[in-house]
Design brief:
The chain is an alpha/beta fold. Helices cover 41% and strands 14% of the residues. The longest helix has 22 residues, at 10-31.
Length: 230
């Protein structure tokens, strides 16, 4: 069955609702998830959600008690076996990591043009120390082409639950999620790709420390360079 058929069929929509409820329920209980700013996520129409990347659990936290389903982009190597069929049935979009995958970018833009919500992690890979790396230019192009508002989003606590140095996640923790106010595609176009990437980096870092304050945690120091693996 084609991807569009999976997402649009009655059975596909029901399956995604059930899976979302079960996954979010378990995750919320295990990690005591607190969500802020849900009112900033539009109930309909295209939205491009851009989030920091702390762990493999991020897609589960990103969807925390938001009624409309998000589509996620996952590296192509994950679409194998039973797990691959599972994430495909949930609408995940495969992408070749470490290179410009024009096919996947087109799929994201087409999904947005159909009024869907797509969540991307613009850092490109999981954080090495919990902080947010500099965002690369290019995500503004997707917003402009699809004429989709950008919803900035941050997660805190997931890095401690499953850092890159651990093979398996800890089954306890405390995670916070914060959705920011939508940024119009007109603003993105006026800013330009380079300037908007800098603006988004600063915004996500600011939101991250705001979320940490809400969670009773000290702010992170962004005065020194954030390590990356690219």
């Amino acid at each position: 069955m084609a991807e569009a058929d999976i997402l649009d069929s009655w059975g596909g929509r029901l399956w995604r609702r059930i899976a979302q409820f079960l996954i979010v329920s378990v995750i919320s209980l295990l990690y005591r998830v607190r969500v802020f700013g849900r009112e900033n996520v539009p109930a309909e129409g295209p939205i491009l959600v851009l989030c920091n990347h702390q762990s493999f659990l991020d897609p589960m936290f990103s969807q925390s008690w938001i009624r409309r389903p998000f589509l996620f982009v996952a590296r192509e190597t994950l679409f194998r076996g039973v797990f691959g069929r599972l994430i495909y049935s949930l609408g995940a979009i495969p992408i070749r990591q470490g290179q410009a995958d024009i096919r996947s970018i087109r799929t994201v833009i087409e999904s947005l043009k159909k009024g869907r919500a797509v969540c991307l992690y613009p850092e490109g890979s999981r954080t090495l120390d919990g902080r947010i790396a500099v965002i690369k230019p290019g995500f503004g192009l997707i917003s402009r082409r699809a004429h989709a508002p950008i919803v900035p989003m941050v997660i805190d606590g997931a890095f401690e639950c499953w850092p890159r140095t651990r093979k398996r996640p800890r089954l306890t923790g405390r995670v916070g999620v914060l959705y920011g106010k939508p940024i119009s595609p007109d603003h993105v176009e006026q800013a330009g790709d380079e300037a908007f990437a800098e603006e988004l980096t600063a915004l996500l870092r600011q939101m991250h420390n705001e979320l940490r304050a809400q969670m009773g945690r000290p702010p992170l120091d962004y005065s020194t360079p954030v390590p990356t693996d690219w």
